TrEMBL record:
This is Probable septum site-determining protein MinC. Interacts with MinD and FtsZ. GO terms for biological process: cell morphogenesis; division septum assembly; regulation of cell septum assembly. It comes from Acidisphaera rubrifaciens HS-AP3. Residues 74-108 are annotated as: Disordered. The gene is minC. Residues 96-106 have a biased composition (Pro residues). It comes from the Bacteria.
Length: 222
């Protein structure tokens, strides 16, 4: 799975914002392939010629670009490197799975992001500092990435990546499961790996034992 970065004009200001994000979370893009969607950038815009080099110097691994009419300097030097993830294997879910842990205390103000509209195909919601709640659905071709847990009150047809910054206790909840991919702390299940009996149901996904050494479990919500 690749993340999608969408630079905005003015490019210099966008680069400064991304630099600030990397200062807060230096390892956020580590080992993660990135696609640059440059549909909003004009070919002659200031800074575009050095964009790939700037990202490379900061450990952002670009594997492809899209939506750009010009020739982006340095693009020919980039190649895919999609290693690093691992399949979550299989796990027999008990009839009465353990309930999610109850929260304790009050989280910081920025520990949660609420998205009050559907996530459309091609969109990416990236929030590395905590939980993400989507009040609508997540379309096929869309992705939601959270440092904590993910709560989707509609249908999940796209990709959900929880615990992205190394949180094996993160969980994924959705009202209707039609996902292309589920991932928690580097373990994942693709659509082909998900039990057909769980399709169309309200489910939760978690790592057994709450550790990265556990198995990937998915069970209906009752």
């Amino acid at each position: 799975m690749a993340f999608v970065l969408r630079p905005e004009s003015p490019l210099v200001a966008w680069l400064e914002e991304l630099d600030a994000q990397l200062a807060r979370s230096p390892s956020f893009f580590q080992g993660r392939p990135v696609i640059l969607d440059l549909a909003g950038i004009a070919p002659g815009e200031a800074g575009v010629a050095g964009l790939l080099g700037w990202l490379h110097d900061r450990g952002v691994r670009v594997i492809d670009t899209e939506g750009y009419d010009g020739v982006l300097p340095g693009a020919e030097q980039w190649g895919p490197s999609l290693s690093g993830g691992r399949n979550g294997g299989t796990y027999d879910v008990p009839d009465d799975p353990a309930p999610p842990p109850q929260p304790t205390g009050l989280p910081p103000e920025d520990a949660a992001l609420i998205v009050d509209e559907p996530v459309r195909s091609g969109q990416s919601i990236i929030f590395p500092r905590g939980d993400v709640t989507v009040l609508g659905s997540v379309a096929s071709g869309a992705e939601v990435l959270a440092g904590g847990s993910i709560h989707i009150y509609g249908t999940l047809r796209g990709r959900a990546v929880a615990g992205a910054m190394g949180n094996p206790r993160a969980r994924i909840f959705c009202r209707r499961l039609e996902a292309e991919l589920l991932a928690i702390d580097g373990l994942y299940r693709t659509a082909d790996d998900i039990d057909a009996a769980l399709r169309g149901r309200a489910v939760q996904a978690w790592l057994t034992g709450g550790t990265a050494h556990g198995s990937f479990a998915i069970a209906p919500l009752t």
